[in-house]
Give the backbone structure.
Amino acid sequence: MRVVAALAFASRVMTLLSGQFAPTDTAVVFQAVVGILLFIGLLTPVAGMLAATVECWNLFAQADEIWSHAFLATIAVALMLLGPGAWSLDARLFGLRRIDIRDHQSRR
């Protein structure tokens, strides 16, 4: 899921750089940085939160590509809540986090 989101952001950056839109330099740099962070899995919850915030802003601020913004916002929120996964720099640096759910019988 991280790779799909990173590729979507890379596609958006390439579209902005091709001259079809009049982007600001900060928008291009921000989307490129978020895409790279998501691709390598570094600071994934933070990058997901930033990506979701920007995509929600774009969803209401820009009338074009509504579904593209909604898709990226949904993927970013899912990544923010799920975390980076086993094959990421976050897992290598901070350890893989597991949640073990015990059944009701083991609590007694």
